[in-house]
Predict the 3D structure of the following.
Amino acid sequence: MTHIPQGGAPQHLERFFIKQRVTMMVNRFEIREANPDGSEGRVVAMAQQKRMAFKEQVTFYADEARTRAVFSFKARQALELAAVYEVTDGSGQSLGWFKKDFGASLLRSSFHLVGPGIEAYGQERNRMVAILRRFVDLPLAFHFDFTDKQSGAVVMSSERQFSLRDRYTVTVPDHRLDFRLAAAMAVGLDVLLQR
């Protein structure tokens, strides 16, 4: 059973699933914890992104009715190719940040991920799929691995399943990585790679 602190979001989840729900004016994401047998468990957060916003922002809620915001991420600057996305808890306190490595991402999407005690770098796992994704508009499966910049150990992996709707399995073997920062990064991958 995942511990839910007062703020409403678990501090660490070893594995969770993300499903996108597309609506007319917003993108919604359902985040479910993984049961011990690998099946989908209960909803731990719902995320919502307004389309065509001046500054990219995604808010995560504690419940499906979206009555209580528990964390979010938002671009520090508007309309910047290499924007930094600040991840904050429900009271506005920083949990960390992530940023696309624009130069390295021309051929293989790459990101910096930073939080308390964590400094990681993530890239698409398969270089050929990364290049193919740039030329064909198909719902290809793609995977990201984030490794600790000091030890090289994997701190987080996000794997997109081959499907029409975006579905991800996120694995977080490093207990230092807060669930909220991991979930923000995983949803951020979907949002930022759609451009």
